[in-house]
User: Fold this.
Amino acid sequence: MSNAKKFGVFLVVLLCAACMFVFIYTLVKLSLQEGESSSRLTQAVVNQIGEAAFDEELDANQIHALNLFLRTMAHFVLFSILSFGMCTIAFLVFAHPAGRFFGLVLNMLICAALAYGTEYFKQFVDGRHFQIEDAWLNIYGVIIGLCSFLIADLIFWAIRARSSSQSE
Assistant:
């Protein structure tokens, strides 16, 4: 591999790592905010969605259901994105298949620790509490992110193999 290509890969890894660091910081910052602030933020988003999606004002049951849906999807989607991004970094850092497998296993351990840790440390924040259901949603998000990455990698590999066989 040429030095220019190595430098390009280094820059991509550095950019991905910086983006993931910012993402993790934001995730932890949001996760560990005071309970009242978190509730106000979610309620404001629920009200905006309700106003945009429906012409009438939402009743208490609809507000509760939408609030639950948003919080559930936030856990799930955030950790899916985190896992997908960290898998991308692992594949850029490790070139050989054994190294990539190690990178994916390390990724899963880091993401699972973050998934559980963000929930665990909520109990030390005013107005927040630990919920094992949320920790499991986070871990399911990590698994979906990994599976999505592996599917995307297989599709990319198949396209690349097909294009190289057609060029011969």
Q: What stands out?
A: Helices lie at 3-31, 35-53, 60-93, 97-120, 132-167. Residues 3-167 form one domain. The two ends are 22 Å apart (CA to CA). The chain has a mean pLDDT of 82.
